[in-house]
Amino acid sequence: MKDRIRILVGVDGSNHSDRALLEAATIAKRFSGSVKVITVYGRGMEKKAKEILEHAKLYLENEVEYTTISILGSNPARALRNMAEHENFDLIVVGSRGLGKASIVLGSVSRRVVANADCNVLVVKK
Q1: Tens digits of per-residue pLDDT, 99-117?
Q2: Which end of the chain is less congested by CB atoms within 10 angstroms, N or C?
Q3: Residue 17 is part of which domain span?
Q4: Model's pTM, two decimal places?
Q5: Total domain count for the chain?
């Protein structure tokens, strides 16, 4: 049995991702775990990615052990899945919808993560 739960949470600056971040922190606190926060950004969006991660740090400071990372890319679902697999995360937490308007019921990123991740995925509703 593992000593600590390792949680990967994807953030994009949306209200849904803020809720996912809070849920990840709650789970990490309850099970003495750690959180890694990831944001995936496109070219020219470096400043926005930095702001998103700074915002995430405010939620997590003095609450749980955490790290942050930003990745230049265009496929957040793939980045989350690959990082979870390569770094052996126990849980991926994502918001049910992000900043995109691609899907009415479940966002395209969360849908792809659920469909393709090897670990458990928690989709947090607003």
Answers
A1: 444 333 346 889 999 999 9
A2: N
A3: 6-124
A4: 0.89
A5: 1
